[in-house]
Design brief:
Elements (H helix, E strand, L loop, with lengths): L45 H9 L18 H12 L1 H56 L6 H7 L2 H15 L3 H9 L12 H4 L3 H20 L5 E5 L8 E5 L4 H28 L2 H13 L1 H4 L9 H21 L5 H15 L5 H17 L5 H21 L4 H4 L2 H20 L6 H26 L5 H12 L4 H7 L10 H8 L2 H25 L3 H8 L2 H19 L4 H12 L5 H4 L8 H24 L8 H13 L6 E3 L1 H11 L12 H10 L8 H10 L4 E5 H5 L8 H8 L9 H7 L6 E5 L3 E5 L4
Parallel strand pairs: 3-4
Antiparallel strand pairs: 1-2, 4-6, 5-6
Organism: Cyanoderma ruficeps
GO molecular function, one term: mannosyltransferase activity
Subcellular location: Membrane
């Protein structure tokens, strides 16, 4: 992709209606050196004009071309020659072609050098980020010195669940037998057989497993070692373990690919910031802001296997492509295909991607109804979204949540509005009340269509999302909602987060940029309501992508305030918006008062004060993973239970049991399925105040043989109302006031259960059949 150093059509203000561009030429200059009048849609870039004015490149060393470019009697004589024969005409055309080719070569050589410099800087930023997150991950866990079991335990909760499918594929006799195994999985939700590719967004694990098998096969064929193993003495009376390092170790290969992908993401951020701002300095601002606010931007260095680690880099690519599409006057097929592919790569790995894309198309629709982009362009963008949604639906074996999502409903409703609104409202498109009608039609139509499709297909898997939103606004509570909102990442944004943004100057800079964009947007909207001339329309079109980014910032801000985990989208977008401080479109007027680069470097210097402190804090994190109680539990399960023994317990622990022991489990951390939520409620009834006999009967119905009880869940309380007995008091008020069953089981599990293993954290209860 060509990344220009200046924005298109932004070098000089457009002409007013009726005004004509006049060309001035020195008496002795050749007309070939002058600039011919050109249409606004084909302006020459600033770099090309500067080069031509200075006579740079090869053309600057040539004399004036012969032929029709000379003035005076010679020119008249040439016209006579042209009138006399075709050979003279061919000679003149050849001269013109030769001059054009030489001039174009000089321009392309100069443009290519700028593009290559941009890409080299982008690669450097990517390598820097890869080194940074790799170092943080190693410092935090000493991952290179852990045993295979310890590495698997380090992937807690849903991370362990996802990694377990990668492990199944690479350990299977063949790649396709491994894929078939995860498509007919009998271990994850015993006794059900489920297609995990349909349920869990596991295509990243499938791709990585294929790469790992190819890598090890090729290296074995060449006779090259893929890993180095040694014995690690853990001290403190612990037995030594074998630790392997190198890409031949599955866990090391897995996280290495994730970190490479997120290094590539930083390269995309540099290109994105450069293209949006029209300056490589803007790309530098984006990258530095990301590093200075790294703890707020990503958590890939602490939780590599999470879905966002695979998905988010492709959202950056998709936003970059979308910005390019919004800027160009007409969309070509290649751009739409690239947008569609990036959408697919973003949606396939992550179930939450559809909600992000919902905010995106809502922002695009708002930009369209205000007149900043043409409705035909938006229709083409929506078509790309629909195709990518259909492809994901097929690749995920008919995952009905995709077709019954708010995202799918919104695509249909906006397309219908764009089709029917001009016919119904006719020439009233520029009136404010029309915008309100269209906005309300979108909101009402999306909610209604979503409800109807869910009703038709009988889908309730995403019902908990509406309940979470209700809990934010009206204090709604039930078991499933509290399981989410009691976790810190699903709570409201911390009050300290805006303070941290302010200390690095990220928030103040973005507020200034946002204010300038909104001011100009309001100015042009008011202008468009009173004028219908072509000039205003063309001028506003040049800034449509900036208005879109401002609206997208508002959407991300709302998401992040409601759910703290979604800072993942807000903070990087703030970094992208900060690049616009280098934009001549917004701050070109400052060049008359102060050197813009001086101002930008002064801002970066102030950012560095707090930003460098944040980086040092990250670099000073030193730790070593160790979880001896869970290691004892897993080793006991491997030795003392049958391969088909069925386990139940807390969701994070169940992921580790499935990953490291390959025993069947009845519940797991992927909480987005309605059936799984019902199973989990039955399993967690051990922490309620219900009678032991009732809990035992419910567990036997699920086919459970062993229950792993964690006393910490019985007594821990992250915040008021969030201990497991308190959550059950909301769900089961009839038994409120009784002693929690988990407390009774910790003292004496008889007669309903038999304690067969116990250590400081875990107690394994065997469930005897009645």
């Amino acid at each position: 992709m060509v990344v220009p150093s200046r924005g298109r059509n932004k070098e000089s203000p457009p002409l007013k209606p009726g005004q004509q561009q006049q060309q001035q030429q020195s008496p002795g200059a050749s007309p070939s050196r002058g600039r011919r009048p050109h249409s606004p849609g084909r302006q020459v870039s600033g770099g090309a004009r500067a080069m031509r004015k200075a006579g740079g490149g090869r053309r600057g060393a040539r004399g004036d071309p012969r032929g029709p470019y000379r003035e005076g009697p010679a020119a008249d004589g040439e016209r006579d020659v042209l009138g006399r024969g075709p050979l003279s005409l061919l000679r003149v055309c050849g001269d013109r072609l030769r001059v054009f080719v030489v001039d174009r070569k000089a321009f392309i050589t100069k443009a290519d050098s700028k593009i290559w410099l941009t890409f080299l800087l982008a690669v450097f930023a990517g390598v820097l980020h890869w080194c940074h997150i790799t170092t943080l991950f190693e410092n935090d866990r000493h991952f290179s010195h852990l045993s295979t079991l310890e590495r698997e335990m380090a992937f807690r909760t849903e991370m362990g669940l996802y990694y377990s499918y990668f492990k199944i594929i690479i350990e299977a006799p063949s790649f396709w037998s491994g894929v078939c195994a995860i498509m007919n999985d009998k271990l994850t939700e015993y006794p059900l057989v489920i297609n995990t590719l349909q349920r869990f967004n596991l295509y990243p694990e499938v791709v990585l497993a294929s790469w790992y098998r190819m890598y090890t096969t090729i290296m074995d064929f060449l006779g090259l070692p893929t890993k180095t193993c040694w014995t690690v003495n853990r001290g403190k009376g612990l037995s030594p373990v074998e630790s392997c390092e190198g890409l031949g170790d599955p866990a090391s290969f897995y996280v290495a690919v994730i970190f490479l992908l997120n290094g590539f993401m930083m390269s995309l951020f540099f290109i994105y910031g450069t293209y949006l701002s029209g300056s490589r300095l803007g790309g530098l601002v984006t990258v530095l802001c990301f590093f200075f606010n790294h703890g707020e931007c990503t958590r890939v260095m602490w939780t590599p296997p999470l879905r966002e680690s695979f998905s988010y880099p492709f959202l950056v690519m998709q936003m970059l492509l979308l910005t390019y599409i919004l800027r160009i006057p007409s969309i070509n097929t290649g751009s739409l295909i690239a947008l569609c592919v990036s959408n697919i790569f973003f949606m396939l790995p992550w179930q939450f991607a559809q909600f992000v894309l919902l905010t995106q198309i809502a922002s695009l629709f708002a930009v369209c109804i205000m007149g900043y982009i043409d409705s035909s362009k938006l229709q083409k963008i929506l078509s790309a979204h629909m195709v990518s949604l259909l492809v994901c639906f097929i690749l995920m074996f008919g995952n009905s949540m995709l077709l019954t999502s708010y995202y799918a409903a919104s695509l249909v409703v906006i397309s219908a509005i764009l089709e029917w609104s001009p016919k119904i409202l006719k020439k009233r498109k520029r009136e404010v009340y029309v915008w309100v009608i269209e906005g309300c039609a979108w909101l009402f139509g999306t909610v209604t269509l979503k409800y109807l499709t869910s009703l038709v297909f009988g889908i309730a898997d995403d019902a908990h999302i509406g309940n979470i939103l209700k809990s934010k606004f009206i204090g709604y509570k039930d078991f499933d909602t509290l399981m989410y909102t009691c976790a810190a990442e699903f709570d409201f944004m911390e009050k300290e987060t805006p303070v941290r943004y302010t200390k690095t100057l990220l928030l103040p800079v973005v507020l200034v940029v946002f204010g300038v964009i909104i001011k100009r947007a309001i100015k042009y909207i008011l202008w468009s309501l009173s004028h219908t001339g072509r000039y205003e329309k063309e001028e506003r079109f040049n800034h449509g992508e900036l208005v879109f980014h401002a609206l997208q910032l508002l959407a991300y801000s709302v998401l992040a305030i409601l759910i703290m985990r979604l800072k993942l989208f807000l903070t990087p977008h703030l970094c992208i918006m900060a690049s616009l401080v280098c934009s001549k479109q917004l701050f070109g007027w400052l060049s008359y008062k102060i050197q813009p680069k001086t101002l930008v470097f002064a801002i970066l210097a102030l950012m560095t004060i707090e930003g460098s402190a944040n980086l040092r804090t990250q670099w000073n994190i030193m730790g070593e993973f160790s979880n001896l109680p869970q290691e004892e539990l897993l080793e006991w399960i491997k030795v003392n239970t049958r391969q088909d023994a069925v386990f139940a317990g807390a969701m994070p622990t169940m992921a580790s049991v499935k990953l490291s022991t390959l025993r069947p489990i009845v519940n797991h951390p992927h909480y987005e399925d309605a059936g799984l939520r019902a199973r989990t409620k039955v399993v967690y009834s051990m922490y309620s105040r219900k009678p032991a006999s009732q809990v035992k009967r419910d567990l036997i119905k699920l086919g459970v043989n062993y229950y792993i009880l964690e006393e910490s869940l019985c007594v821990s309380r992250k915040k008021p109302g969030c201990s497991m007995p308190e959550i059950w008091d909301v769900e089961d008020p009839a038994n409120r006031g009784k002693i929690p069953l988990c407390t009774l089981m910790s003292k004496d599990s008889r007669p309903y259960f038999i304690t067969v293993f116990e250590n400081s954290n875990y107690r394994v209860l065997k469930i005897p059949k009645e």
